Amino acid sequence: MQNKMNEQSGNRIVLDGLYKYFGNVQAVIDVDLQVRQGEVVVIVGPSGSGKSTVLRCINHLEVPTKGAVYIDGVHLEDKETDINAVRAEVGMVFQQFNLFPHLTALENVTIAQKLVRKRDKEEAERVGMAQLERVGIPEKANSYPRQLSGGQQQRVAIARSLAMNPKVMLFDEPTSALDPEMIKEVLDVMLDLAKDGMTMLVVTHEMGFARSAADRVVFMDEGQIVEIATPDDLYNNPQHERTKLFLSKILAH
Amino acid sequence: MTTLEQQAREKTPADAWAQFPWWLLAIIGFLVFMGVLLTVGEEYNSAFLFVKDGIAVTLRTTLTAFGIAIILGLFAGLGRISHNTIIRNIAITYIEFIRGVPTLVLIFTLALVVVPEGADLLKLDVKAISPNSRAVAALSIIYGAFLAEIFRAGIESIPKGQMEAARSVGMTVRQAMQYIILPQAIRNISPALGNDFIAMLKDSSLVSVLAVRDITQQARLYAGSPFRFRESYLVLTFLYLTMTLVLSLLLRWYERRIRQDAK
Ligand SMILES: Nc1ncnc2c1ncn2[C@@H]1O[C@H](COP(=O)(O)OP(=O)(O)O)[C@@H](O)[C@H]1O
Ligand SMILES: [Mg+2]
């Protein structure tokens, strides 16, 4: 155990032989991945290849069938591990935003600070406002989600995660549900985050983002990692037939 | 604007005729007629003066029982969807048990069998439990089961992403329920809760079988002397109809307001 933890040092996220089955569906098969402090890793792959499931295993929204997840050396499958404490350190941004519709933007970014981080109202609001400013919409603090555009909602969702001061941010197709004209405002926020040294694992098909922010790109197909490379290598010089086929399809769009 | 929309906007006289709430006019007409009768008709007036003494009991019984039923229903509804097999089955047993027996029979069984036996078990003095308390207990337990199904449906109607978002910022299941899921669920089900409040107000008339002096019991007592059926029961009908009409108009207004808020 102790050995294992030392072995993981320097890595924010370690996936070790991860499997996830849904009944007969093998969603994730033997995935190994390490994400270092400050690294930005993009995951691409066809629909149904298990990208979301990998992300959801990292904060235990899905419990792996087999294998291990370590966040900062903490073994998630260990019965002693306080999963809520780990989740507070791992921000998650969803395709559908999942803002709390009965709360204002500011309340969305303060409620977990108060309940989980035990910050008082004043501090939570100060941190919350700072994060709303960081994502560029402090003037929407008192608006409800239904009064915001998709791009604004997704930025509030990012601020909600950031307000917890997470060590790691997970993004599951954060721009896929957005109208084209709103994609850029969300990607810009993510690029800023990457520049500030946030450790990020991002499922996205936005090649521009991957090229300018990613240290590595992971290509997944049918639950498995097919190849991992730098963005330039993966997009310009894919090694595997399945990668080439996938890239030719998304480039055809 | 398309012509179709224009057509939809402009009301023809026939539309106005079809959409006018004639039913409301008819009911209000009846209530006004009764109101006049109550003031000028001597027999009706004295029936009213006797029966009205039960209004406080009817309202107090309904309000108290509904308050308790909401708490019972919330926990039974949460239990109903619990991942814990034992808790879930206890909740289902309670709900199905109540739903399988007529309300009148349950009032007898709960007030005259379950409450005394329960008091015995807890070493309480059975005689100290008034018929009013038994009535409240019975109505609460019955409506707790009905409300449980409303709460369950309300909680299940909230998209899964809400619980996931709450959990992924580190909230416990309890915190997520309390601060994220339930506030949304309760808002969604508040019209259904309102409907059950009206239903309970009407069902509270059944507690007259326990000799609780609500308006129904008062009317029965007044009708006890010969030839007074007509004024007793018309006055009683008038009272229930007035209360339920006011409540259901309030409910319609509230429903319309939350639907506008959601826009
Ligand atoms: N909760 C679930 N129950 C059953 N099957 C699921 C569930 N979630 C995902 N799957 C299946 O797992 C596979 C991988 O899904 P997912 O991780 O969502 O892929 P991706 O995000 O790459 O599109 C798919 O075949 C999907 O149908
Ligand atoms: Mg997905």
Describe this structure as you would to a colleague.
The complex is a heterodimer of chains A (253) and B (263). The N and C termini of chain A lie far apart (48 Å). Chain A contains 10 helices and 10 strands. Chain A has a 6-stranded mixed β-sheet with strand order 6-7-8-3-9-10, with helices on both faces. In chain A, strands 2-1-4-5 form a 4-stranded antiparallel β-sheet, with helices on one face. In chain A, helix 4 crosses helix 5 and helix 4 runs parallel beside helix 6. Chain A is 40% helix and 25% strand. Chain A is α/β, with parallel strands linked by helices and 253 residues long. The N terminus of chain A is likely disordered. Chain B has 263 residues and is an all-alpha fold. Chain B has one domain: Orthogonal Bundle (MetI-like fold). Chain B is 80% helix and 0% strand. Chain B contains 12 helices and no strands. In chain B, helix 10 runs antiparallel to helix 12. At the A-B interface, helix 3, strand 6, helix 4 and helix 6 of A face helix 9 and helix 10 of B. Adenosine-5'-diphosphate binds next to strand 2 and helix 2 of chain A.
Main sheet makeup of chain A:
6 strands, mixed
Count of discrete alpha- or pi-helical segments spanning 4 or more residues of chain A: 10
The shape of chain B, in one word, is: flat
Bound molecules: adenosine-5'-diphosphate, magnesium ion
Kindly provide the name of the CATH class of chain B.
Mainly Alpha
Most extensive interface, residues per chain?
A: A-B, 25 and 20 residues
Task: Supply the number of structural domains of chain B.
Answer: 1
Helix- and strand-based class of chain A? alpha/beta
**Got a strand count of chain A?**
10
Provide the low-confidence segments of chain A as ranges.
1-8
Query: Helix- and strand-based class of chain B?
Result: mainly alpha
Q: Let me know the largest β-sheet of chain B.
A: none
Overall body shape of chain A: globular
Tell me the helix content of chain A: 25-40%
Spatial extent as radius of gyration of chain A: 18 Å
Average pLDDT reading of chain B: 92
How widely separated are the two ends of chain B?
21 Å
CATH homologous superfamily heading of chain B: MetI-like
Mean pLDDT of chain A: 94
Helix tally of chain B?
12
> Could you give the order of strands across the largest sheet of chain A?
6-7-8-3-9-10
